[in-house]
């Protein structure tokens, strides 16, 4: 069966099998090639990679040429194996560790989002990385940084305070720097779910859904979802699909692409024995979301247990072990990718929309109602459990006939009209924040 629409992309966040992201200190291109061979063997088509900002720009006026050369060599190695590459810039934050250059901390403490000199340095760095890759046909584009919104407020122990207006100015400038370096590529930014669920967080849904070439969502069910509803619940397996559809409430473009840029099966909330089932169910749910750009699993390889101080769940999130053995979740994702590419049929529009009333649509001060346990979340999941295919719409647009028609919405429901879910007995886990 032939179709005119392309199937969503399937890829993985690349975690080097040896040395984790510290591999940039002892860069071994042969080891990278071997990792990419194991990723390509799964039938995936792209990787997201993470230069460590302090290693690439150790001084505000020094972007190390050798580090940039190593990044371009990595991108070329991926291309030789049929893999496209998305590059994150300001790392930033990875798996509970912060990586910030010394010229922003302690004696040189300056706000990451508002200090003029820091902004000049960040923009130069992003422009340099993008410019170095602009001629590579397999370079997808830049993400400004991994969940960099976690630096802007609680629960970070030393946040760089910023307002939503200052966030917008920062995002626009950094995205413009990427565009100058490599015009026309997929440049975007990515937040962890505080942007969607945390009241008055300075990075807002409006920022995610309006700025950049696509909307990125990161879906982690250890944010209270699996704890509250249970691993096998609709509320857990549909969490990623929910975030994709929640983002559309704020988008101006009815066909704006949404990238599920991170999703994984974290133990103990999802057991190792259950990871393949969770992977398949999550992907099946999200593939029923119109305008999905792609699914990028976290992560490619497990973290070597010789490395200390990671949260326990981080060690086993890979699709492959450190020696390249495919784990059950990896085999299931490979199978799902192959299934999706065979005779892909784009999903029909989702006709039932749950009303989202978070206050002002730009700053959305009341976002907790969208999170696990909140009325929007529970209404969406109850509808999904009943066999509906729900989406969301802002209260400000709930009676805008042109907007509803453009999205294929034929029914609007308020959360109060939908019966609440009954929480699982295992509801008292700690909520996750940023990774």
UniProtKB/TrEMBL annotation:
InterPro entries: GH
Domain of life: Bacteria
Ranges for region Disordered: 415-435
Molecular function terms from GO: hydrolase activity
Keywords assigned by UniProt, alphabetized: Hydrolase
Presence of keyword Hydrolase: yes
Name the UniProt record assigns to this protein: Glycosyl hydrolase
